Amino acid sequence: GIQVEQSPPDLILQEGANSTLRCNFSDSVNNLQWFHQNPWGQLINLFYIPSGTKQNGRLSATTVATERYSLLYISSSQTTDSGVYFCAVDTNAGKSTFGDGTTLTVKP
Amino acid sequence: KAGVTQTPRYLIKTRGQQVTLSCSPISGHRSVSWYQQTPGQGLQFLFEYFSETQRNKGNFPGRFSGRQFSNSRSEMNVSTLELGDSALYLCASSLTGIQPQHFGDGTRLSIL
Predict the structure, then answer these.
(1) pLDDT tens-digit readout, B59-101
(2) From CA A63, how far away is CA A86, in angstroms rounded?
(3) Nearest CA-CA distance, residue A4 and chain B, Å
(4) Do A93 and B97 touch (CB under 8 A)?
(5) How far is B56 from chain A (nearest CA, A)?
(6) Of A57, A94, B2, B64, which one has the greatest count of Cβ atoms within 10 A?
(7) Distance CA A56, CA A73 (A)
(8) Are A69 and A29 in contact (CB under 8 A)?
(9) d(C-alpha A21, C-alpha A6), whole Å
């Protein structure tokens, strides 16, 4: 099956810093989503981005489908950004393969 | 618009028992997917239902089963529970399966 690799596995930032999270995938995909899982386990959909670039406030994402990677940018990080960021790709409708996630800790 | 609702939020069972988890999707969503999350294996796909039919299935034993009702609500059943079934079980819904998935808060299952 398809492989999804996320890097870095862990990231510690000072509040206000910027960061880039990467997601590589091993095969062509129909869809790609970025999620944030908060400390309570809730998975929040950040971006649905099979290709191109999207922005939402301090967050933006870019997917280059031909090169099989996606990037999530977080600018001016806040403590509430802490949690685990997952990349998930779909090869079949309704079936997502998740990466292992990047654990982000933002210190005040 | 109400989000995805999973019940119960927490569950404690003993080995050998069976359990049924419920998921109510966002109104109008017809695709419901189930995932298991554990510290060791991460987030793994269990199965997906669309219009009361299982359309996709992950690599889990037959003890894990599910169904979907005509109102799109879905249930997941695990029989003969094992210690390794302790996990956060997450349900996600989307319109037809190719749109963004929206997750419920999960059911945290503990096996004693």
Answers:
(1) 999 999 999 999 999 999 999 999 999 999 999 999 988 778 9
(2) 14
(3) 12
(4) yes
(5) 7
(6) A94
(7) 10
(8) no
(9) 7
> For all residues of chain B together, what is the average pLDDT?
95
Query: Is the Cβ–Cβ distance between A85 and A35 less than 8 Å?
Result: yes
Q: Which residues of A touch B98 (CB under 8 A)?
A: 30-31, 90, 93-94
Question: Are A35 and B100 a contacting pair at CB < 8 A?
Answer: no
Q: How does residue B1 score in pLDDT terms, banded at 50, 70 and 90?
A: low
Helix, strand, coil percent values for chain A (each to nearest 5) = 5, 60, 35
**Chain B residue with Cα closest to A48:** B100
User: What is the Cα–Cα distance from A13 to B65, expressed in whole angstroms?
Assistant: 42
DSSP category for residue B104 = -
